[in-house]
Amino acid sequence: MKILAIETSCDETAAAVVEDGRRILSNQIASQVEIHARYGGVVPEVASRQHLLSIIPILKQAMAEAGVSWEDLSGIAVTVGPGLAGSLLVGVNAAKAIALAHNLPLIGVNHLEGHLYANWLGDKSIDFPIVCLIVSGGHSDLVLVRGHGDYVVLGRTRDDAAGEAFDKAARILGLGYPGGPAIEQAARAGTASLPLPRAWLKGSGDFSFSGVKTALLRLAEAGKISSVADAAASFQEAVVDVLVSKTVTVAKERRAKQVLLAGGVASNGLLRQRLAENSPLPVLVPPPNLCTDNAAMIAACGYYRLQAGKTNGLDLDVIPGLKLG
Ligand code: KG4
Ligand code: ZN
Predict the structure, then answer these.
(1) At 92, which helix (H) or strand (E)?
(2) Residue 320, in any domain of the structure
(3) Which ligand 1 atom minimizes the distance to the CA of 111?
(4) Residue of the nearest CA to atom 8 in ligand 1?
(5) Which end of the chain has fewer CB atoms surrounding its CB within 10 Å, N or C?
(6) Structural domain harbouring 191
(7) Which of 166, 171, 270, 294 to mutate to test the pocket of ligand 1 (most atoms within 8 A of CB)?
(8) CATH number of the domain encompassing residue 53
């Protein structure tokens, strides 16, 4: 069963073809990172215009790379939310047009669920129940996955998402956008020597990252940052410390069989290493290129939705504020 998927929720125009929810036949991404970097963040109107320019070429490339024709496809999956309304609209309308023209089932996919399903790509064996930490630019969700499509959200961020915190910290340190990779790179030359706070929020699965960000800002304003590398390493350490500790605690409490990581921040090397070292349960993490936004993960999720008969009509609409669970 081959699914064509489209992802346009933020600043990547992506299309992919995946077989049986596992085997990637193509995975094309047109990144807008350089365009938005000069503004220090994603400009929604610029993003949607860029999606319009890229969507047809990227779809053609994905079909060509996979070597498939429309008749080979079993369905078309597309991200409906969460994300930027104008960006999501480009992908959803392209998917609707293809579904109508080629009489294909249309499958609306939650972007966060897509991140989770990046873990199914490849030939890993996955056993429910799972605890998954989904950490991206807009979300930090700790989720119990009891089966396909069966989620209980055990914790969320109360303020900044982990990726958002990385992006803001990078701006404070003058490291540019996107901040996560920039902080990770700078941290390699530093030591985590700055005393930055951690919000443990004991007894809750929730996160809070605004305090550590503000603490970094205050140090910068007071001229107390003598080494950007040390500051980056300290910030990364503080965020990873909380993410790993809470994820491991919740996974043990819920008697999960495995721990999964997902979302753009899951490409962070320290987070991957620390979770693997500290979890008594097996940890699965997608390769870094499948942690950040891509369409293969949307196709993987779309496959399981199609199998469960969860398809949509041509009245499918974007849901910018969509949540998980
Ligand atoms: O999942 P994603 O590609 O897009 C969203 O759905 O938001 O995540 C993007 C976020 C950005 O905030 C970016 O700074 C962060 O993921 N990120 C990282 C790393 N790579 C990307 N954060 C920490 N370390 C990284 N290596
Ligand atoms: Zn994402």
Answers:
(1) helix 85-102
(2) no
(3) 6
(4) 264
(5) N
(6) 127-285
(7) 166
(8) 3.30.420.40
